[in-house]
Write a structure and sequence with these properties.
The protein has 18 helices and 27 strands. By secondary structure, the protein is of the alpha/beta class. It folds into four domains: 105 residues, Rieske Iron-sulfur Protein (3-layer Sandwich); 169 residues, Naphthalene 1,2-dioxygenase Alpha Subunit, Chain A, domain 1 (Alpha-Beta Complex); 51 residues, Helicase, Ruva Protein, domain 3 (Orthogonal Bundle), CATH 1.10.8; 222 residues, NAD(P)-binding Rossmann-like Domain (Rossmann fold, 3-Layer(aba) Sandwich). The strands form six sheets. Strands 9, 10, 11, 12, 13, 14, 15 and 16 form an eight-stranded antiparallel beta sheet that branches. A seven-stranded parallel beta sheet has the order 23-22-21-24-25-26-27, with helices on both faces. Strand 4 and strand 5 form a beta hairpin. Helix 11 packs across helix 18, helix 13 packs parallel to helix 14 and helix 14 packs parallel to helix 15.
Length: 737
């Protein structure tokens, strides 16, 4: 397996070299990547550049490499970065390789995209076979061909092939959609399905004009297939659409696509042999409808085999006792002097596989029928629920409840509900099941959910007499006048509320988020809410997990306003809300990276800026980090989130000890439940959360993002709090009592 690496900070192109160090066989992927783009072996530190040349032998750095280790080199492969992926030509003739295809939707703002990647326990050929034809759609996915006399028989579809791939086009009357998909297409509307296969990346592209022919509404997926070894394959998917562009539809769109993909996955992983053959079975029986697309695929593989591009498996040695190297372009130019031999390939004259054109093929359309067309129709040839291997079917009302929840929490609801349904031996998610799960959330039934206990009285926050006169909380409405404050994640929720109140007190605000569309819209709303000029509030798009983005954000803020006085590290990722043993490593790492690393980076570059501005004892620079009442009033399914917030509190205390004497105060605001847009949506979708929260917030209401969080932040930034550093201030309505 080659080593693939990239250094964005150094603006270097991605590189791919053989993973095996030619000195002593260590894995270069386990080594050290240097700023100059060289990769060092973890054993003796031999460094190799992106062209495979050894540039340094550390133990004898006083000599040129050609003197110490003459001819020391490893294989390097051609790479291209495109469409969010790195494409590698693993071979010695990149000029002869099929060109990377066009993906016109990639830069088209009319399309939105969601992605998924996962490892399938199957050979890469087998992974492709499970979705290379139309006939499996009714049997595997329950997608019937309406209007056909036999709804399991695929309509006529034409295949055209080239040297680099093929295309298949079919028009069909699909089964009526249900739930949220009903409104997308009129009943009886015909759709056109176009399937394309490209040799680069073993890529499959599927396109359905989901709204019906002529609607211009397309559902498109790209499936990129990367072999890991003989029995494992990395499957990456892009799901694109130009309809229902709202973020809350992302989860349902991804779920619907993965429903079919996971059925194909289950099929691929159950097929035998585990290692697929390198060509079609010469004794196999192939028929017109079921196999013509697969045979087109084998024809493409045959073309590459005829060029001498197929590995000779019969000559491969056991990888546990030998090293396998894919030949690189340099071997073709300079074939001698390599430490390890290249993988053996089949010469065109030694091919033993049967040619596709010589296979036994039953052209069924040319044979007269011998059975009535409805033969076997009375038997349930299609299971009642053909979706039992993937995501399950949902009761309409249950799906509507999920859609009311914020987009970030929808995957958690879907995952937990479908897991519970399977454990109950059913393939159907109902409202009743959702309610049962909600009752169990946080370890028990919510107080008064069954009416057996009185519901706590909850009210809205009452305006103070000063507010009724149009006055704010602090005596001087412009107490923060001229102060420059960054609020990460300031485009919505509590962050937006804090930014609004600080701007009203006269601060100049920089808000940040990942999504520029929502960011620009929030900028307009914030200016209106705070009554500020366009020059006083700006937006910066960034990923808080990126060191480069944090550094760029700081430069942007100082270039715009001339200085920095405070930062609120507010951006957060809550996680998947799973029990710890069910939590994926990917989700855990994303929680920790966003909440802990993101906070650390914001603190790091803010402190550097304060010091550059001459921070010293007696100054009033402020850093505010954010924690959660969940760290004290611990809830279930929140382990990564709680761990991350406790880590943030630790960062606050440690950094406050280091920098308070230099006029840099660092504190944490710990929040209870607030009436943010997403929280209100979540409480509407899952009333039990509101009931539990009501019982815990002893002041009798939930937090107001601007008044409660904003006032607390304003206080910690103002001159009134210069004796406060390293503390965690509770703004939680008594939640943690």
């Amino acid at each position: 397996m080659p080593s693939l690496y990239k250094m964005p900070a150094a603006r270097l192109e991605p590189r791919c070299i053989s993973n095996v160090c030619p000195h002593r066989g260590s894995s270069l992927a386990a080594g050290i990547l240097y700023k100059d783009g060289t990769l060092a072996c973890p054993f003796h530190g031999y460094r190799f550049n992106g062209n495979g040349k050894c540039t340094l032998v550390p133990s004898r750095r006083d000599h040129e490499v050609d003197v110490v280790a003459p001819g020391m080199r490893t294989d390097a492969y051609a790479t291209v970065e495109k469409y969010g992926l790195i494409w590698v030509c693993l071979g010695d003739d990149p000029d002869a390789a099929s060109p990377i295809f066009d993906m016109p939707e990639w830069d088209d703002d009319n399309f939105c995209i969601t992605t998924n990647e996962e490892i399938w326990e199957a050979d890469y050929h087998t992974c492709k076979f499970t979705n290379l034809d139309y006939v499996h759609l009714p049997v595997v996915h329950g997608i019937m061909f309406q209007g056909n006399e036999n709804p399991i028989q695929a309509p006529v579809h034409k295949i055209t092939s080239t040297e680099h791939g093929y295309q298949s086009v079919m028009r069909v009357n699909p089964s009526p959609s249900e739930g949220v998909w009903e409104e997308i297409r009129e009943k009886g509307a015909q759709v056109e399905s176009i399937m394309k296969y490209f040799v680069p990346g073993f890529t499959l592209r599927g396109q359905v004009e989901i709204g019906g022919i002529g609607s211009g509404e397309f559902n498109i997926f790209y499936e990129f297939t990367t072999p890991i070894d003989e029995t494992r394959t990395m499957m990456r998917h892009y799901f694109l659409r130009n309809y229902r562009m709202d973020e809350d539809f992302h989860t349902e769109h991804t779920r619907r696509n993965l429903q079919n993909i996971h059925q194909d996955k289950a099929l691929a992983e159950s097929q035998r042999p585990l290692v697929a053959p390198t060509g079609p079975n010469p004794n196999g029986i192939y028929t017109h409808d079921e196999d013509k697309i697969m045979l087109t695929y084998w024809g493409l593989m045959e073309n590459m085999r005829n060029k001498g591009w197929q590995i000779d498996r019969s000559k491969l040695k056991n990888p546990d006792s030998s090293i396998r190297i894919i030949p690189s372009p340099e071997r073709k130019t300079n074939p001698d002097g390599w430490v390890y031999e290249a993988m053996p390939r089949i010469e065109p004259g030694d091919i033993t596989e049967i040619s596709v054109k010589d296979l036994a093929f039953v052209d069924i359309d040319g044979i007269e029928s011998t059975r009535p067309k409805d033969y076997g129709k009375s038997e349930p040839v299609i299971p009642r629920d053909a979706k039992s291997n993937a995501t399950l079917e949902w009761e309409d009302e249950a799906l509507e409840r999920v859609e009311k929840a914020p987009g970030f929490i929808q995957p958690m609801i879907i995952k937990n509900a479908e897991k519970a349904a399977k454990e109950n031996g059913t393939n159907f998610v109902t409202v009743k099941l959702l309610e049962e799960l909600q009752a169990k959330q946080n370890g028990g039934v919510a107080p008064s959910s069954d009416g057996s206990a009185p519901k706590p009285k909850m009210v809205k926050r009452k305006e103070s007499s000063n507010e009724k006169k149009g006055l704010l909380g602090m005596a001087n409405d412009k107490e923060l006048d001229g102060k420059v404050v960054i609020v990460t994640g300031g485009t919505m929720g509590i962050g937006f509320g804090m930014a609004t109140r600080l701007a009203k007190y006269g601060a100049k605000i920089v808000i940040t988020s990942r999504n520029s569309d929502t960011g620009e819209a929030a900028l307009v709303r914030l200016r209106d809410a705070a009554g500020c000029s366009a020059d006083d509030i700006v937006y910066f798009k960034m990923d808080i997990c990126s060191e480069a983005d944090n550094e760029a954000m700081m430069k942007f803020s100082v270039d715009t306003f001339g200085r920095l006085d405070a930062i609120i590290n507010n951006a957060v990722f809550p996680g998947d809300f799973q029990l710890l043993a069910d939590e994926s490593l990917e989700s855990f790492e994303q929680v920790m990276t966003t909440n802990v690393t993101g906070t650390y980076l914001g603190m790091k570059f803010a402190i550097r800026q304060f010091l550059e501005q001459g921070a010293e004892t007696g100054d009033n620079y402020s850093i505010i980090n954010i924690s959660s009442g969940a760290t004290r009033d611990t809830g279930m399914r929140m382990a990564p989130y709680i761990a991350s917030k406790l880590a943030v509190e630790g960062l606050t205390q440690a950094a406050a000890l280091e920098y308070s004497r230099q006029g840099i105060r660092i504190n944490t605001l710990l929040f209870g439940m607030f009436e943010t847009e997403k929280a209100l949506q979540m409480m509407e979708a899952m009333p039990v959360i509101q009931e539990k929260g009501a019982a815990k917030h002893h002041v009798g209401r939930f937090g107001d993002p601007e008044h409660d969080a904003g006032e607390a932040a304003a206080y910690l930034i103002s001159e009134r709090s210069t004796f406060i550093s390293g503390t965690t201030m509770h703004v939680d309505g008594g939640m943690c009592l």
